[in-house]
Here is the input.
Amino acid sequence: MSRARVVDSVDYKPFETKIPAGRSRAIPWATVMAGSLITIIPVVATIPLLPPFGFVMLLAWRLLARFAFKPWAAAPLGFFDDLVSGQPLGSAVLMWSLAFVAIDMIEQRLAFRDYWQDWLIAGGLIAACILVGRFIAVPVGAHVDTILIAQIAVTILMFPLAARIVAAIQNKRGAE
Amino acid sequence: MAPARDRRTGFSRRRQYGVFMGYVLAVAGAVVGLVLLVASTFNPPAFSALRMGVAGVTTPVSTGLATVGSSISGIPDAIGNYFFVKQENVALRADRERTRALLMRARTIAYDNRRLRSLLAIRERSTAPVVTARLVSSSASSGRRYALLNAGRWNGVLPGMPVRGPDGLIGRVVETGPNAARILLLSDGDSIVPVRRTRDGMPAIAAGRGDGMIDIRSVNATNVRFNAGDLFVTTGTGGIYAPGVPVARVTKAGSDSVMARAFADPDTLDFALVERMFMPVPPPRPVTEQ
Here is the structure.
């Protein structure tokens, strides 16, 4: 292995130039909104199987990089998600805000967390958010429940990907 | 992970109030969400202008992505066509010979039909489509079944217009923006279409189930038997959909309420025709002052 590769593989780079502060604050917002825009992929689906990726990105930022968002950021991001997701307007504003509050309450009790616990918290919130969203948007009698379980599973499995994206960006962002 | 390091705010009043305000705003966000949700539940088209404004930006992007996607996925097809063109030619020639007699008969029947209709003086409504456009994306992460059409008010698309594909009914327009329209698909839980069976004209209702299938329910009789393969077309009742548009085929026999599959399979939707409302609601009669 050449010397350059060895130096590259070291994570700790104290003198590397970081992303400037303004852009560094905007990037988390941009990534969550890009996640919400997953619905613009050109597919006319008969079943709701696409994961709400904006919410997964939001949870990853909140759990892995606590100061990326102010506590109130969930509401405007949820508003944008509602505009593109097809859910009744206000459902993501409500659910995402409540998710932030829930994470705050968990954080007070569970100060030292590892990655698996983060994933578990995210999984619980994803399942709750999708389930409540289903009862808000679709009549109780509709036959979407089996697909919903599949969607929840797919969405929970997306969390590691979101965590990877967040970690890669967080390495480049300056310390706050 | 180490605990968040600014849990303690120290002695700085400014910092303490800042953190406190953050949480007040977070809870206020949830309250605003609840208010918006109630507003949009009782008045669904309330925020359609905002939604369609965003859709006006995303629809061209989806259209571009669809074009790129279809041209890439079309490459294997094009190669296959190149190699199998001779066999296909032979098959098509044979097919033409077989259907020639049928075509002659169909022409005669069509002529007779036209003549008899003119005898009956049936008032034919113009069935010219408003616009032909593409369905470019859908609400694939939500339980609702909406699709976005890349044509809007600039093309003459208005809320309430029926949308059909080459195979059958797709749904109807619910919201329009300048260059995009939101289509409520047949399989949405809120979609209800009056239909009749082609075999005997028995009326029924086609209601969406939310999982891509459609429920066919009998309306005016109990213990109605549905067979697998029964075909249903629109009746024209209600004034939105023109009569005779294919809607669904029953997949499994049963009585009173059975599952059916739509003819226009949205997974393979390509082009969609937006048509005028069959018989729009007349404007309210002006109130005369006395």
